[in-house]
Amino acid sequence: MFLVNSHTDYGKPLEAVDALTLGPDGADEVEHFLAVRDNHAPTPLQALPHLARRLGVGAVLVKDEGRRLGLGSFKALGGAYAVVRLVLEDTGRQLGRSVAYEELFSPVLHATAARMTFACATDGNHGRSVAQGAQLVGARAAIFVHAGVSEERVAAIARFGAEMIRVDGTYDDSVAEAARISAERNWTVVSDTSWPGYERVPSLVMQGYTTIVREAMRQMSEPPTHLFIQAGVGGIAAALAGHFRLLLAKAAPRVVVVEPSLAACLFASAEAGHPVKVEHGAPTVMAMLECYEPSLVAWRILSRTADAFMTVTDEEAIAAMNRLARPEGGDLAIVAGESGCVGLAGLLNALGNEEARRALDFDDKARILLVNTEGATDPARYRELVGLPPEEVVAGARMGA
């Protein structure tokens, strides 16, 4: 399904609080944090020239977040950053002065962090980031996972020393349980979704994602004309769309938000003209995007900045995974998880949809930016869907490079 954004807020400036979060000063904060991380390096921007020629566009570029900070996902930029910001601020209140990122490993900061517990609900990747951030500063982490999160993903989070708490039901149920127990135990919730009265921390999480645009713009010879970006609750889509709008104004790329057809809360919200919760049905293979209610902050931004919303099927996502793993014409192979490839699935769908082609002004000069939001964060699932272990795809890419 494809839907042009017809919201009454479409095209309006971002609200002041969102412009402050996603603007240049906010992006600078994230880069200051990353500069003190030992394992930080910009992720690659991979061109797929053969695929671009096959599709009749000028360029297809993939920002590969599967290599981010050792966590295999763009989420590494959000949760950990929010945890550190909160610890810095709490330490600063105790000391009566601002605390710099360079003091991240100081005894006084770790003494503050040791008294704090950070909690979140997760499909897998956000929880790893929060747990890694807590471990970085010496805090505790309590991570709530719903019934659909695989044991492999649970184990990957637990490796950072987090307490793992299983919750019956869906991601939304785990969000509610994390909030309830955290209120009882005075834990700090670091959620990547927002609700009435809880916006600042999710906004910090989104601020972390602005680095993706910063790096991509340095890696490109000219800005993209289109961005196809996947969404669960909408955090990364809103962060990238908002930062591009603030950075490039009218020259910002057209933004298409892509969701699983079985969990399309933003598409439904765009149809209704306001945030809605969709019913939980059959699970989608795109596990990291299986969310049934949008983040209110993300929706507020996307209602202004997204040009269109669309959905893709499980079959289309799996086909995109395989297309990236087995490229043609000398393009480099990319390990994309079942949620990481969704932008490509959306692009392929849109190019076969006459309404979408007209609405998005595709031509042979279009420069398409995609984000591989995760690598093989569940290697067993990846092998099941692609028929190859991720390390074999990586080895093939190295040989072809």
Automatic annotation (TrEMBL):
Residues 37-373 form the Tryptophan synthase beta chain-like PALP domain. Its cofactor is pyridoxal 5'-phosphate. One of its GO terms (molecular function) is lyase activity. Pfam families: PALP. InterPro entries: DiNH2opropionate_NH3_lyase (IPR010081), TrpB-like_PALP (IPR001926), TrpB-like_PALP_sf (IPR036052). The keyword Lyase applies. Keywords: Lyase, Pyridoxal phosphate. This is PLP-dependent lyase/thiolase. It comes from Labrys miyagiensis.
